[in-house]
Amino acid sequence: MDLLFRLRAIPGLQVVENAELSHYTRFGIGGPARILADASTEPALNLALAALHQSPNQRYMVIGGGTNLVASDEGFPGVILRYTAPSIEVDGTMLHVAAGAALQDLVDVSISWGLRGLETMTGIPGWVGGAVYGNAGAYGHSIDQRIERVRFFDGAAVQEIGNAECQFRYRESIFKRNKHWIVILASLRMDRAEPAELQATADRILKIRNEKYPPSMRCAGSIFKNLLLGEILEPARSQVPPQVVREGKVPSAYFLELAGAKGMARGDVRVADYHANLIYNAGGGRAREVRELIQELKRRVLDRFGLELEEEVQYVE
Fold this sequence. Notes:
The protein is an alpha+beta fold. Strand 11 (147-153) and strand 12 form a beta hairpin. It has three domains: 3-83, Uridine Diphospho-n-acetylenolpyruvylglucosamine Reductase, domain 2 (2-Layer Sandwich), CATH 3.30.43; 88-197, Uridine Diphospho-n-acetylenolpyruvylglucosamine Reductase, domain 3 (2-Layer Sandwich), CATH 3.30.465.10; 214-316, Uridine Diphospho-n-acetylenolpyruvylglucosamine Reductase, domain 1 (Alpha-Beta Complex), CATH 3.90.78. It has eight helices and 21 strands. The chain has a five-stranded antiparallel β-sheet. A four-stranded mixed β-sheet has the order 1-2-5-3. Strands 15-20-19-18 form a four-stranded antiparallel β-sheet.
């Protein structure tokens, strides 16, 4: 039976052919995916995966909100699958949130219920599944500090693991190292606080974030991970002034700026002239130009400091 026909027959699964990935990524870059399938329920997700597994030669990839994705100019020759369930359940100081919920919605709900722990993540785009996958965070806090359990599909069955088993590190998790695993739901333990206090913190941070990353800017936020000071070898480490170090990390922007990154460009893809770790699409940018610029920035930092920068962005190709 034709895969497209089987996918269209699944309740709760919305299927689009030749979906331009530029419409589903924050960079606004990417050619057409042969099929885009959005599963709004867990049963729909399970049935879609079963249909894909019954087509062993069919390529597919699971994505979230597209915040940190660089999609190929040629698009994707298979199925792009998204789990779009947006539910957020409040149970005392626990939050149970589906992977398809927008991270900002989760932040807003936590603030309105007087639950402390996520307010510093206000303004971070994307969905909760991606936030768990990449251990998103800001201003000294990351989502792993609140996660108790994660429900996910491991390619064969639905599993549930605790925080320690998620193997969270800075911008890392076990899910990032097992890309075929699909986050379904996360349970977070919060603390009580006054909503007004939490909102004031969020408002202050959002103002700073919007000045750095305007909501209309077609970008993925910071392109490269920051570096852990303890993992930087001499002589590069001796070149880092103490005031640059933040919570044991050295911003990649520090090394990028010294390497002359600000204002660099490849076509319509540019490095911001005010932030060396921010690449954006100024209009008609192409994935090829993003990758060329990233490789040039990595080369410059490696040549000058002997440091290997690691992208936060993921590639769809």
